[in-house]
Amino acid sequence: MTGYALPIKRLIRELGRLPGIGEKTAARLANHILRLSEEDAVRMAESIVDVKRKIRLCRVCFNLAESERCEICLDHSRDRQMICVVEEPDSLIAIEDSGSFRGTYHVLHGVLAPLDGIGPEHLRLKSFWRPTPACRGNPRPC
Amino acid sequence: MTGYALPIKRLIRELGRLPGIGEKTAARLANHILRLSEEDAVRMAESIVDVKRKIRLCRVCFNLAESERCEICLDHSRDRQMICVVEEPDSLIAIEDSGSFRGTYHVLHGVLAPLDGIGPEHLRLKSFWRPTPACRGNPRPC
User: What SS3 class is residue A104?
Assistant: First the structure.
């Protein structure tokens, strides 16, 4: 990274930490960011900090959410008797993109991997099975 | 982008504006950013704002710089009698990476393109030719 001013070197290093972004791509992206207006650059920076500060896990299905419940769990038109159990939030998004599922989800945030020492206690499983008095017939709070 | 919480949608949209980053790649990067520590995310965001706020053009060669002069123009071991004229700062970096040039540079920030209405007046040319009393024999302030 010879010849780059320090703030550009820093930005290239930070972008280069993203998956699939090598030093050359990072330099190309940094050059693009340099040409953005300050307003656009600030908006991009804020969006990075925002996801860290505002996103939490939905307390019902453990999908990523901005409030206590995710948009899907808040959607009353969803069929709560159908629960699709997925490994990660990405899988949920892929199914949602297909537009063919109108039930709800449960995100495990991992899979059983006994050889790697990952047992049921490491997954978001307990809450899936815990029935609540308010929701007979539905294993989760609704 | 069905199923994503708003801050994630915003981040995917912002990342998707970068060159060569489609929506799928942006979603992958956003998922990675979600898994960073808050400290790492803040550092990445700061590095984006920093390049916009701290980087200016070197007043001698118009390379990108953190202060009035870039690192190359400040380096007294450089041969100031040799000036390599380049189109953009990227070209300068490519030559610097080769390690084979010990002169200085002049960055035009463009090329003549009469058909697109880009004439000499649109490039950083004037200052290249203006001799200063302090530097006889060298077309630029030194």
Answer: strand
State which residue of chain B sits closest to A65, comparing Cα positions.
B5
pLDDT per residue over A58-110, tens digit each? 999 999 999 999 999 999 999 999 999 999 888 998 999 899 999 999 999 88
DSSP notation for B58-80? -TTT--EESSSS-HHHH-TTSEE
Six-digit token pair at B84? 């390599």
* Cα A7 to Cα B58: distance, rounded to the nearest angstrom: 14
Closest CA to B85 of B56, B63, B58, B113: B63
Helices A89-98, B23-35: axis angle to 10 degrees equals 150
pTM reported for the whole predicted model? 0.75
The amino acid at A121: E
Contact residues, chain B, for A30 at CB < 8 Å: 51
Residues of B in contact with A8 (CB under 8 A): 51, 55, 64
Q: Would strands A56-57 and A64-65 be described as parallel, antiparallel, or unpaired?
A: antiparallel
8 Å CB contact between A63 and A89: yes
Q: Which of A34, A48, A64, A84 should one mutate to test binding to chain B, selecting the residue with the greatest count of B CBs within 10 A? A: A48
Find the CB nearest A14 among B4, B38, B47.
B47
At position A8, the amino acid (one-letter code) is I
Residue A137: CB atoms within 10 Å: 8
**B54 vs A7: CB contact, 8 Å cut-off?**
yes
Integer Cα distance of B79 and B81 in angstroms: 5
Predicted ipTM of the assembly: 0.77
Q: What size, in residues, is chain A?
A: 142
Q: What is the per-residue pLDDT across A10-37, written as a single tens digit (0 to 9) for each?
A: 999 999 999 999 988 999 999 899 989 9
